[in-house]
Amino acid sequence: MRHIAALAAILWIGCLASPAAHAVMIVKLGVVTKPGSAQNIVAEKFKSLVEERSKGAFTVKIHHSGTIGNETDILQQIQMNTVQLGIITGGPFDTFDPIVRTINYPFLFKDESQADRILDGPLGAEILKSLESSGLKGLCFSENGFRNLTNNRRPVHHPDDVKGLKIRVMSSAMHKAIWQTLGANPTPMPWPIYSELEQGVIDGQENPLWVMEVYKLYEIQHYMTLTRHVYSPHIDVASLIWWNELTADQQHLIQTAMQEAARYQRRQNREQNAARLALLKEKGMVVDSTPDIDAFRARVTGLREASVFAEPRVRAMLDKMLAATK
């Protein structure tokens, strides 16, 4: 019996030392932006939480700065499970699931707290669930922020001032429609766009304040208008193929870590916005803090009937969003 017990002990120790017992799951996470950016803050926090809580069972490899492609490329790789996770701007989801367009409807959310209430609630959950039809597991929403217009040609106070400006937009039918309606010449371009702005290929762009700071757009853009025309979330997604291979406990770990990372990033982003605005002014940007928002809002009201919302389920979601944010 002693021999049997000794043999059993040896086998048990051997199992612990075997590669299978100590297998580490390598998880690829793609973001298009550089360290210090909003997406990367979520990614780094998520990595820290998952690796710590899994006690090393997961290793998260962050591929940043567009090293594995633009956001559309990353989403396609997530669909195929060659990349497992991504922190992606809402706009590029247009071609994967047009229901996401409803979040980017202009002047939809009054403030961040309203955005949190809607996106963390049943309507946000419905949008995340819808992504599964495109092979994406929607985990939660982190924050890009309210988007503002910059340009290097003239001050913009009224929508008439936008006419003819060549504005870089994301690869998004929704964002293109917004700026066409306002009279600009929207030009879809992947990120980053510093050299295009510097060379005058485009006149301006629209993004949250953190982008102006981290990418030093104050060096090449003179005018900024606090239009806050779209609240722009990031959608934090996983490959549905990969997700379905995980155990229930692993899914819970990934889900809760990403939600916690998103809340952490949203809080941090908002706490820094006042200092960012002060910095941009200090760097020489001419900022219009009180543009004629009523005129901007009136100019885009007709978009609710636009073809980008023609699909019945997309239209139904837009109607629910508009009712919830009245």
Describe this protein with a few key phrases:
326 residues, D-Maltodextrin-Binding Protein, domain 2, disordered N terminus, alpha/beta, 12 helices, 6-stranded mixed beta sheet
The fraction of residues assigned to DSSP E strands is 15-25%
Tell me what the CATH architecture is: 3-Layer(aba) Sandwich
- Level-1 CATH class name: Alpha Beta
Q: CATH topology, anyone?
A: D-Maltodextrin-Binding Protein, domain 2
* C-alpha Rg (nearest Å): 22 Å
| Tally of distinct domains | 1
Category from helices, strands and their pairing? alpha/beta
The major pleated sheet works out as:
6 strands, mixed
Strand order of the largest sheet: 7-6-8-5-9-11
Distance between the termini: 76 Å
> What average pLDDT do the residues reach?
93
Helix content range: 40-55%
- Helix segment tally: 12
Residue runs with pLDDT of under 50 for 5 or more positions: 1-21
- SSE order: HEHEHEHHEEEHEHEHEEHHEHH
Could you give me the name of the CATH homologous superfamily? Bacterial extracellular solute-binding protein, family 7
Number of strands: 11
What overall geometry do the principal axes of the alpha carbons give? globular
